[in-house]
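Weekly puzzle thread! Below is a chain. First person to post its structure in token form gets bragging rights.
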Amino acid sequence: DEFAARDGRQRWVLGSMGPGTKLPTLGHVSYGVLRDGFQRNAEGLIAGGADALLVETTQDLLQTKASVLGARRAMDALGIDLPLLVSMAFETTGTMLLGSEIGAALTALEPLGIDMIGLNCSTGPAEMTEHLRHLTRHSRIPLLCMPNAGLPILGKEGAHFPLGPKGLADAQETFVREYGLSLVGGCCGTTP
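Winning reply:
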């Protein structure tokens, strides 16, 4: 509100949920416990004034479903309907951490009534291209992408991400033009 008052430009707050450290497919936590935890998370974000809910960096398709259904339950309980966005993390292997492919993820999540689907984290723009191409061809909902600033390069002083603002902006411009993305952003290695 303070920033909008300064220049009159509308701002939105995306309430970020996930991924958490427990993967239901590996038996770390039961589906019900995870879903209920995400419901409480979403209720808090809604109470705090979030304009939309963003389930992000999910690595397990069952984890993703639990978060989406927890968010839906929160909105139902509070009598509010907010946009619900889902952003998954795909490894350089081309699958989510637990092996789900992009087509399976889209098939499982789109019927749950999400408003936007896409990718974030794990890789940079180059490694996300084929996934975005698949989503463009098969998704009936808008797309989003928040890549890392490239794949990390490990050095003596820790991880360094090779893409600067111009390189990341160029990649996102290409994604918007070629794949029709509706929302872009950045993840690891990005700065204001």
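Puzzle host: Confirmed. Bonus trivia for everyone else. The beta strands are 14-17, 52-58, 84-88, 116-120, 143-146, 153-155, 158-160, 183-184.
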